[in-house]
């Protein structure tokens, strides 16, 4: 037990992650539980570290939530990312003003379960990827607004089914409707201000029912159709209880299929056809998918949505927004990072720390409770990274492919850039290569708009032949990536307050000063994406096993070690510290 709970004698990144996981596994974070003491000091260090990591690549503002007055189980420093400052000129900048956002949040927070309002957490190509809980039902709304109505037998939609309504009931119905119009109206204003168009609902229920009462609702069953102007996606995904089966199967997700025939499961999968045409997925088979395939396909869908050509944002939510929601938010953050599209200056240990601390811990995931019940959705998230390393999960794949001419592959374009790298004013006489910067790390560019004009088929063939025999024909590699990384030294210190932006945006370093200089490129290849995600997964497994540990399943008659524990012993080099 003592060995499993000790901090590893490793580098500062490993030690910081271990301290975070230990704190996470001992107590649930609550903003309202601030104050003094050693525990509070540890939380403050975690919060400061998150702000520092956000500040590496972004200008941001902070919405104060010091005592949980905005939301009791949201971060005490709610970060609004405003602009990626990793490149000299970034066309993608949020138009959201923190003052107006804070006002809309205060007005709208009652609309969502537990007051967990729509909160932007990722900025990608100027789009806000948001998280929240589902819509509050009538019971929670009336309870929080002072109405003594929770046991009256009504519900927010039940009135529509009643045939004989008395005068007294009619008055209650009008009050009910007015209350929902008001609070959900504010919620809709917040969504529109954040330019959210797509709402992805992970609930397997239309409404959450407890003790015979509808305690939550959802946009898809709002009888007044207040959310009709949004694109609603019902993508039902098993709740945290299902992940006990994952743990009981020796942490094996392959072949683990959710039972869709349970009585409470009444939300079918529903996705507009326009969003599924390019994915080559048979969505009618979703009830036969195992946990791996279901998670993969949902992630592909989310990446496809945020990679669309419009400027619309995305909201992801489940019921309370602290189990399934951080699972997909974290996978999105890590996937986009692995492509070099967000948080591009962060190392694997740093992006891992940020997503564990901010997306899970500070947004109120109840790890202590989940571990006590064996519902290990948190562990599943990071172990699942091994299933999304291929290019089919890359957000840059479609951007690159759609602009490349059919006669050239992406690798050949990279080789062309390598060959002509010595010139800052011209390229090969046979070709003209136009580049457009994309929001990535400092000094980071991707070939999102490539215009290649060959002199003809013979020129193309000759170029390919010369590249094949040239020692300079080297594919983009991790060594090249590290060479192109902008040093973090010299970055201005992050400064934030309750309503002011961090002010380091004018201090960041830029590569080159000539407007004609061809910028150094950081094109993340499929193999590079895989290695980056594997580094994150390996770091998580090592730190998790030394701090929290896994609960081993009963041994088989042969006495063989469980599959995942065996991975630890062989792959991470641990001896006996992976069990509690």
Automatic annotation (TrEMBL):
GO MF assignments: phosphatidylinositol-3-phosphate phosphatase activity
Annotated spans, Disordered: 479-512
InterPro entries assigned to the protein according to its UniProt record, in alphabetical order: MTMR14, MTMR14_PH-GRAM, Prot-tyrosine_phosphatase-like, Tyr_Pase_AS
Protein name stated in the entry: Myotubularin related protein 14
Species annotation: Aquila chrysaetos chrysaetos
């Amino acid at each position: 037990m003592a060995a499993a709970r000790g901090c590893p004698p490793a580098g500062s990144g490993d030690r910081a992650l271990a301290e975070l996981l230990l704190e996470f596994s001992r107590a649930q974070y609550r903003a309202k539980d601030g104050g003094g003491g050693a525990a509070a000091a540890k939380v403050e260090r975690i919060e400061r570290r998150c702000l520092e990591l956000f500040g590496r690549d972004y200008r941001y503002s902070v919405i104060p939530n010091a005592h949980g007055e905005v939301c009791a189980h949201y971060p005490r420093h709610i970060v609004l990312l405003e602009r990626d400052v990793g490149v000299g000129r970034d066309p993608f900048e949020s138009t959201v003003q923190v003052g107006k956002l804070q006002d809309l949040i205060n007005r709208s927070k009652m609309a969502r379960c537990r007051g967990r309002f729509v909160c932007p957490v990722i900025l990608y190509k100027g789009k806000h990827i948001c998280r929240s809980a589902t819509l509050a039902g009538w019971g929670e709304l009336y309870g929080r607004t002072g109405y003594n109505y929770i046991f009256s037998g009504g519900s927010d939609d039940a009135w529509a089914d009643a045939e004989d309504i008395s005068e007294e009931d009619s008055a209650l119905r009008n009050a009910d409707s007015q209350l929902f119009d008001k609070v959900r109206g504010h919620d809709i204003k917040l969504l529109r201000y954040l330019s959210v168009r797509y709402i992805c609902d992970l609930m397997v229920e239309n409404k959450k029912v407890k003790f015979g009462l509808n305690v939550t609702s959802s946009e898809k069953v709002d009888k007044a159709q207040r959310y009709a102007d949004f694109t609603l996606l019902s993508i039902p995904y098993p709740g945290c209880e299902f992940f006990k089966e994952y743990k009981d199967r020796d942490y094996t997700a392959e072949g683990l299929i959710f039972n869709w025939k349970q009585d409470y499961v009444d939300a079918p999968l529903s996705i507009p056809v326009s969003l599924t045409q390019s994915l080559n997925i048979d969505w009618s088979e979703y009830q036969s998918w195992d946990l791996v395939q279901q998670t993969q396909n949902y992630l592909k869908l989310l990446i496809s949505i945020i990679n669309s050509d419009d400027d619309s944002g995305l909201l992801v939510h489940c019921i309370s927004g602290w189990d399934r929601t951080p699972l997909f938010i974290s996978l999105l953050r890590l996937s986009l990072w692995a492509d070099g599209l967000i948080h591009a200056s962060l190392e694997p240990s740093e992006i891992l720390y940020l997503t564990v601390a901010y997306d899970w811990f500070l947004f109120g995931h109840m790890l202590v409770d989940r571990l006590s019940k064996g519902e290990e959705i948190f562990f599943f998230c990071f172990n699942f990274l091994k299933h999304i390393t291929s290019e089919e999960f890359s957000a840059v794949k479609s951007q690159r492919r759609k602009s490349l001419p059919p006669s050239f592959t992406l690798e050949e374009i990279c080789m062309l850039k390598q060959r002509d790298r010595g010139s800052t004013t011209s390229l090969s006489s046979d070709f003209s290569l136009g580049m457009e910067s994309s929001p990535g790390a400092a000094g980071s560019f991707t070939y999102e708009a490539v215009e290649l004009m060959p002199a003809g088929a013979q020129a193309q063939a000759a170029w390919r032949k010369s590249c094949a025999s040239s020692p300079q024909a080297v594919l983009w590699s991790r060594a090249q990536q590290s060479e192109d990384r902008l040093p973090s030294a010299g970055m201005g210190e992050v400064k934030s307050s309750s309503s002011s932006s961090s002010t380091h945006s004018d201090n960041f370093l830029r590569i080159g000063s000539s407007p004609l200089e061809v910028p150094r490129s950081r094109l993340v290849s499929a193999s590079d994406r895989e290695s980056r995600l594997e580094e994150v997964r390996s770091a998580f497994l090592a730190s998790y096993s030394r701090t929290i540990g896994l609960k081993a399943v009963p041994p088989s008659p042969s006495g063989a070690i469980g599959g995942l524990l065996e991975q630890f012993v062989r792959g991470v080099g641990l001896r006996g510290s992976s069990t509690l």
